[in-house]
Design a protein that fits this description.
Layout lengths: L13 E6 L7 H15 L2 E6 L3 H13 L3 E5 L3 H5 L1 H10 L4 E3 L2 H5 L4 E5 L1 H16 L15 E6 H6 L6 H6 L2 E3 L1
Parallel strand pairs: 1-2, 1-3, 3-4, 4-5, 6-7
Antiparallel strand pairs: 5-6
Length: 177
Amino acid sequence: MAGGAQGDRPNVKRITLIFNPLTAPYYPAFLRDFGEAAATLAAELSATPVHDEAEIEAAVSPFAREPDGGLIAAPDPFINSHRALIVGLAERHRLPAIYGFQHFVKEGGLISYGPDTLDIVRRSASYVDRVLKGERPGELPVQAPAKYELLINLTTARALGLTVPVTLRVRADQVIE
């Protein structure tokens, strides 16, 4: 994406990740990977745990006042249940943001990349069937998501002054206009 940036990249030099450690127990691994990625992106990285709506506001609003920022909203149940606030803050502060679930983008967020939750539900039906036929749940293999989706909201991109490259649009599973 471009928005006063060189080439197809936005001018994001600072990235903050918001997450709730109580509903995202995987966050230490997520933060480790996040930190490694920041080095390759030449971006300043910060991570802010949030526990309530006031902390979300306190994390996003001051961060957004400085230029060249981007937001990552962790894919956790707490963040998901506060998506209207988070998407609204990103919109109000003109902050590009990426989310882990597609409904954020359908509700006005910029980009999401994450597991196809409908596919997960469909595949879980076979597990229910196996348990009902007598298999022990503890003996069934753990399944990881098999299908991931990229969604882009072009209306939000335009509102942010960003141009989404054609190469990214054609790779998206869904583009909202």
